[in-house]
Amino acid sequence: MPEVVSDATSCRGVDLVYDPVGGSASGETVQCLANGARLLAVGFASGSWVAPDVSQLFWRNASVMGVYAGGLTRAEPVIDHDALLELEAEGRISGATTVIPFDALPESLNAVDRAEAVGKIVIQVTRHSDGTSA
Predict the structure, then answer these.
(1) Quick check: 80 pLDDT over 70?
(2) Are 31 and 11 in contact (CB under 8 A)?
(3) Is there a contact between 21 and 44 (Cβ–Cβ < 8 Å)?
(4) Nearest one of 3, 9, 62 to 33, comparing CA atoms
(5) What residues have CB less than 8 Å from 79, skipping those under 6 apart?
(6) 54, pLDDT greater than 70
(7) With bands split at pLDDT 50, 70 and 90, how would you rate the model's confidence at 38?
(8) CATH, residue 8
(9) Count of domains for the chain
């Protein structure tokens, strides 16, 4: 994985890793971090928490941050969501969601399989006047 990320980022690395899995694979994610990057430890779906090599964090001036979504008030996610919608409306962020027609589903799944998809892919299903969908 580090080689693929290095190639994709011209050897720069990534600024952020969101890790809901943890476990042994997380060790490799630290090697993908750019200078000053952050690894978000969100969960342990693998059965164990991320256990990063601290020396790798040191040399990258990177950090690990524990993220507990249940620790937020009900208002905080709404405020964050509204801020993201505003940034998107201003054109300051884009590419997080791609809407595709239903008949493009096979190619979109292939793009996901090839790790070429960015963000979320939303399949648009059209309902015909006779009640059928496409």
Answers:
(1) yes
(2) no
(3) yes
(4) 62
(5) none
(6) yes
(7) very high
(8) 3.40.50.720
(9) 1
